[in-house]
Amino acid sequence: MSKKAEIVKIGRRLYSKGLVTGYEGNISERNGDSILITPSGLCKGYLKEDDIIEINILGEKLAGNGVPSSETALHLKVYREREDIQAIVHAHPPTATGFACAGMGLDQSLTAETVLMLGTVPLVPYGTPSTSELPDTLDGFMGYDALLLANHGAMTVGKTLENAYFLMEQVEQYAKISFVANTLGTPKPLPCDEVDKLMALREKFGINTGDPTVCSRDGQVTLYRFSRNELVNLIQEILNEVGG
Length: 244
Ligand SMILES: [Zn+2]
Hints:
- By secondary structure, this protein is of the alpha+beta class.
- It has one domain (3-185): Class II aldolase/adducin N-terminal domain (L-fuculose-1-phosphate Aldolase).
- The chain is 39% helix and 17% strand.
- Strands 4-3-2-1-5-8-7-6 form an 8-stranded mixed beta sheet, with helices on both faces.
- α3 packs across α6.
- It is globular, with a radius of gyration of 19 Å.
- It starts with a helix and ends with a helix.
- 36% of the residues are buried.
- It binds zinc ion.
């Protein structure tokens, strides 16, 4: 299947799963030195291969008829800063976007699957869509493969387009599970020693996005675990202070 055909297929899936509606969302994939990206102003559920636009890393159009996605700058920032990333999906999944509107990231270690695949999905501060403000909000969050964008939606990245798409499905699933668990009462996150075992599996599978942060100890107490990045930054800060 050509890359354009694959983008069309993922667009249909996003739309049929309700992760985007109307003209929402955008999809892109590296194509050698250039990037294939969805056009603005078209429903992602009804794209044709001819609608996909080719741009360079500066965002200049190389081929295609329409206007590249209004969030092109957001995609380009990721491609510039993460060479390991081949594809990006931006959508507005309703439950996950609800968390993003309530000022909440997804950080409770509720199921083995969410701990394994996502760990923590942090909330990125708000930036006006389609302006350079939005890509700037990603500073400090480039180590994550899945992000919630405050009062906006979600973004996932991957080594393949299918990878990035499935992460988006999983972010919405994580949000639904978190919502139900919190609505029913006080959620009981996995015990920290169980999370440690899953962390070992993550390492084995080469998954290193967003380390899990909230687990439980003695059945009741939730404990905040620093993510690896946060811990490294904290130690660095302390060393700087001691050294200074
Ligand atoms: Zn959006």
